[in-house]
From TrEMBL:
Belongs to the short-chain dehydrogenases/reductases (SDR) family. It comes from the Bacteria. This is 3-oxoacyl-[acyl-carrier protein] reductase. SMART domains: PKS_KR. Residues 212-391 form the Ketoreductase domain. PANTHER family: 3-OXOACYL-[ACYL-CARRIER-PROTEIN] REDUCTASE [NADH], SHORT-CHAIN DEHYDROGENASES/REDUCTASES FAMILY MEMBER.
Amino acid sequence: MTDRYAQAVNSGFTKTLAKKLGLPRPAILRRHRAGDPLTVGPVLVLADAASKGDADTLAQTLLGWDLDVRRDPHDDLRWGAVVLVLTEAAEPTAVTEPVLATGSVLRALAGNGRVVTISRAPADDDTPALAATRQGVDALVRSLGKELRGGSTSNGVVLTDDVEVAHPSVVAALRFFLSAKSAYVDGQLLRVGPADAAVVDGTGWQRPLEGQVAVVTGAARGIGASIARTLARDGATVVCVDVPAAGESLATTANAVGGTALQLDVTAPDAGQRILDHARERHGRLDVVVHNAGITRDKLLANMKPAQWESVVAVNLAAQLRINEVLLAAGIDGLRIVSLASTSGIAGNKGQTNYGFSKAGVIGHTRATARLLAATGGTANAVAPGFIETEMTARIPFATREVARRIPSLAQGGQPVDVAEAIAFLASPVAAGVNGQVLRVCGQHLVGQ
Ligand code: NAD
């Protein structure tokens, strides 16, 4: 599950050779470590004329995080990040100056740098010029993601009209995108709506899930085990769920995170009730459910056996629907559900009609469930990983695997922790304004972007 090519072109003699031959050199991505600075250098905050007030507000927030915040692109610095505030830009020409100012500092952007836009979502009553400006930001962010080098990324926070820039979920999304926790998230825009969210400050950012109980399915290995570790790091007590056959590794994960193990096939008819009972009886509450358990049974549809279709849909989709019914009926205040989708559920993938159907289905039910949970202050979101280095992807034939790794803008596969960090963000109470969204963790995979 290691990317030997990326290792070779970044170390020793093979690094020099790769440079000489002009081979692509995927950057070593900076990942979160406790105590490390939030960004790799000073943060430049830019805005169009009408958005200066919002930019001032956000600059104050960044200063509160002890960042070196600047407002002048002419400062001769190695920048850690650019925050481009376009919330009040009302016509396309309004963005010209701050966008070109962003361009003027890109050569001085440090490796693993960040560009984050803050803009507004198009609304039904927008004038054509306003709608054009707001929509324009979408492919500005995605195009820039394809241009940046050295592990730098471009992402955007998109506010609905009824949300102020100081909303805790806007601030939390900005912090996530600036941080090393979003190492493998690139070219993505995350929408924030008006739901109430508690303000986080100071040490609150270190353990946003303190006192909360989270269930993670498929936690014995791979992405699920990493989610369990990350949620525990953030303060949650974690219930680790997996099939009895994976009991030994399940116990290892549960012990490592100081949580409990629940041996359970998520397709069992009573799975939802057993999850709810276990969480309440052992830990007194349930706040977060991460639907991570998933399988692949790849076949061209012409050769697909009924069991191959049925098992994938049963584990990846039907189980989530059935468990969610029980959770919704329990009327838990502020419940957060995060489901694993996939870029295959967005763009489709040869040999994966079953898997693609199931993962697109996850996106569909997430949006519908989000509306149902909003009434009780809860959220449902999905994370769509691209190519992540796990046992699941280690089974892909070598040549296909190598192509899949190099296609994303970041030219490498992601690590399970990259998916886990995105899930931990969406599972945190401060992300309450993010509801019904699909966040891709795919290094800006070319397909479906
Ligand atoms: P994995 O195969 O390494 O781990 C999946 C875990 O789910 C295993 O521990 C397995 O025992 C468990 N599981 C399977 N069926 C179950 C059931 N019926 N009940 C309970 N547990 C069950 O997979 P992974 O790569 O870690 O993937 C985790 C999730 O991420 C899956 O939903 C997968 O579809 C999704 N995903 C992975 C990638 C990737 O590149 N690895 C990409 C996109 C999406």
